[in-house]
Amino acid sequence: MPSLSLTLASDHPIPFLADLMTRSFEGYLVPINITETVMHTMIRRDGIDLTASRVLMKDDEPVGLAMIARRGWTSRLAAMGITSNARSGGVGAWAMEQLIAEAKIRDEKEMLLEVIEQNIAGVKLYEKVGFTNIRRLIGYKLDTNLAQGGVPAAEESAQNGYGGLSGQNDIEEIDIRELARMVTYHGMKDLPWQLSGTTIMQHTPPSRAFRLNDAYCLISNPDATDIAIQSVLVKSRSRGAGLSVVLMRALFAKFPNKVWHVSPIYPEEIGFVFEHVGMQRESLSQWQMSRTL
Ligand SMILES: CC(C)(COP(=O)(O)OP(=O)(O)OC[C@H]1O[C@@H](n2cnc3c(N)ncnc32)[C@H](O)[C@@H]1OP(=O)(O)O)[C@@H](O)C(=O)NCCC(=O)NCCS
Fold it and tell me: Could you report how far apart the first and last alpha carbons of the chain are, in Å?
């Protein structure tokens, strides 16, 4: 019987961790290639604690990686993978039990994660160790080169007079930190980790933040062909008036001929805003899961 053990991720160099993570996600539903830069960005943006993250050893061989992010009483399993030669033999379940026990020793109260709904082994693993679903997370896509009849102007989609008020329909670029403060104050309290104000606060140029009246939007570098919508928010007092739709349409017009992406980290209950701007739902979705400690 091989012996399993955990070593501190902080005891290993970043290039080793990046390579091990890439190998641990071999054959995944979406191709994963973790470079050193990607690893550094994940650690900084998502709040990963390398002293709480673990490299999984089978005898002397590294066979997996678990990245743990931490904020207050909550931790998040930011990545978990087992190299293909060591899968489906109980290693993942053993590692999860250790990680949960370690989080309890740290006096944390909850562990969070997101898992692709179509990842059968992943979902079964997390259910087996006591995680339950909070909600489904969904993504969208729109190629504005192909959009039928072009993208309507912001004015056409305005409701309740927002679009018609002269001088109030201009989009204004703002500091990403201002947007992050709005998300923290007005956003859902249990937003997925990557959409939380704390994570949004870590975004930097070439990402850019825009405001139109009480609507806010963060996008990845708009000079690229593909642009990700990284945050959308309307202040509580102005919800229900289609303001986020007006802002997104204004951005589609400002940066024409792009492919716009919403990665599957958005709560299903707010998906309608992306449908209202003509985006198509992606086939992959995720479960946002939680385990009380
Ligand atoms: C998901 C993953 C971490 C599971 O680790 P593992 O060591 O293979 O899992 P285990 O052998 O401990 O199995 C745990 C449970 O998962 C399920 N499972 C494991 N392999 C499975 C497979 N190939 N098909 C269906 N279910 C499977 C089983 O229900 C199993 O419990 P059981 O044996 O009591 O029935 C691993 O398959 C992996 O690294 N995959 C690629 C990366 C990935 O998907 N990571 C998760 C991202 S959130």
Answer: 30
Torsion of CA 68, 266, 268, 238, to 10 degrees: 130
List of domains in the chain? 4-108 (3.40.630.30), 138-285 (3.40.630.30)
Q: Is 149 exposed, middle or buried (0-12, 13-18, 19+ CB in 10 A)?
A: exposed
Place of tokens 């207050």: 72
Q: How many CB atoms lie within 10 A of CB 95?
A: 22
pLDDT in tens, 167-194: 456 899 999 999 999 999 999 999 999 9
pTM: predicted TM-score of the whole model, two decimal places: 0.92
- The model's pLDDT over 224-259, given as tens digits with 9 standing for 90+, comes to 999 999 999 999 999 999 999 999 999 999 999 999
Residue whose CA lies nearest to ligand 1 atom number 12: 90
Find out whether 202 and 41 touch, Cβ atoms under 8 Å.
no
| Ligand 1 nearest atom to the CA of residue 89, by list position | 11
Residue 154's contacts (CB-CB under 8 Å, 6 or more residues apart) are 163, 169, 212, 246, 247, 249, 250, 253
Cα–Cα distances in angstroms (integers) from residue 195 to residues 66, 87, 162, 180, 218, in the given order: 21, 31, 26, 9, 11
Closest ligand 1 atom to residue 87 Cα is 8
Task: Compute the distance from residue 208 Cα to the ligand 1 centre, in Å.
Answer: 38
Q: Would you say the CB of residue 85 lies under 6 angstroms from ligand 1?
A: no
Beta strands in the chain (DSSP E): 4-8, 54-58, 61-71, 74-82, 110-116, 132-143, 172-174, 208-212, 215-219, 226-234, 259-267, 280-281, 286-292
Atom of ligand 1 at shortest range from CA of 122: 1
82, 91, 120, best to mutate for ligand 1 pocket (most atoms within 8 Å of CB): 82
